[in-house]
Amino acid sequence: MAEAIEYLNPVFIDAHNLPDAWFQLQKKLWEIDAYEYPVEWGSYPGQLRREFDFVCCRIRHPGLRPLCDEIPPGLSIAPPTTIDRIEEYFQTYILGPGKEENQKYTYGERICIQVDHLIQNFREHGFGHVKSCIEIARPEDLVDGKSQPCLRLIDTKIRKDRIANVYRLHFFVYFRVWDLWGGFPENLGGLQLFKEWLVEQIGPNPKDGLPLEDGEMIVMSKSLNVREHMFELSKARVYQGV
């Protein structure tokens, strides 16, 4: 008789825009028999964390505004983030090359040393290649233990939209671990602004002159989660704010 095994349960979400992706994932996390465990090392030790085994979320129109959830009238909870915070996150943490004395890293510190090369590669060589992955993770991060970046890589792909006869820049983003309530909308909102900025910087295809426009976003994580102190907020948004 075969031994009983509990298999990982991957989740796949197809969303219209960023708020839709956020809401679908909040709802899905309470619909499935998601794994809960107490954090033993890292952020919020001792608290329960409810998380997906693995999630892959396709967002077809990530540039549609608003970029973050708008809490329905009558539901007295604070929004997970705001457009002002998203714009600040983009400007200071994604495109800001520096770091404070108490910071071991910022995403911008690692993104900015690569982004000029990425832009130049597309400008010089055209769009018919996939040599365009921005890596945030470094091998030495594991030595630092608790300071490992949550965002690991931003992979890019330019694909011709044969119906509209334009090119589109798509993002493939992987997070090691990720706060679904506040981190997901703020991080992805900032990354969407980064993608739109890249579209402007790269410009038309140098080979045929066709324009480059904004594309889709595919996001993945093995530990997208809601922390215990946010459980009731997440449930309230899903079940009272429909």
Written description of the protein model:
With 242 residues, this protein is of the alpha/beta class. The protein has a single domain, classed as Thymidylate synthase/dCMP hydroxymethylase domain (Thymidylate Synthase, Chain A, 2-Layer Sandwich), CATH 3.30.572.10. Helices cover 31% and strands 25% of the residues. It is built from five helices and ten strands. The protein has helices at 18-31, 83-94, 107-125, 183-202, 231-239; strands at residues 10-15, 35-38, 48-51, 54-59, 133-135, 151-161, 166-175, 178-179, 212-221, 224-227. The strands form two sheets. Strands 1-4-9-7-6-5 form a six-stranded mixed beta sheet. A four-stranded mixed beta sheet has the order 2-3-10-8, with no helix packed on it. Strand 6 (151-161) and strand 7 form a beta hairpin. Helix 2 crosses helix 4. The longest helix has 20 residues, at 183-202. The mean pLDDT is 95.
